[in-house]
Amino acid sequence: MSLNYQDQLHVLKDILADHQFDCCGSVAEYEQLERLIKSLMVNADIDQNVKNILSDIYSYSQTGRNIKNVNDHVLAHQDQLTNWIDSIDQYS
């Protein structure tokens, strides 16, 4: 069973909220973010503002997947995590 647009946004938001709350993330979570974002980006019905946010989150996940200190990466992006979560709430 594939996830619909709303489900994908919900999972995306949950992962970001976990990063924000726990101040850490795993390689598997970053990879999941990337898969979700790739799937969402090909959806023609998605607003361009959402695509811009998804692009930023994708960059965050790529860096996080390859960084040595994941905790510092998450801590450095606390404000962005808040903004991304709030923005996803607006569009979901």
TrEMBL record:
InterPro entries: YtzH (IPR025547). It comes from the Bacteria. This is YtzH-like protein.
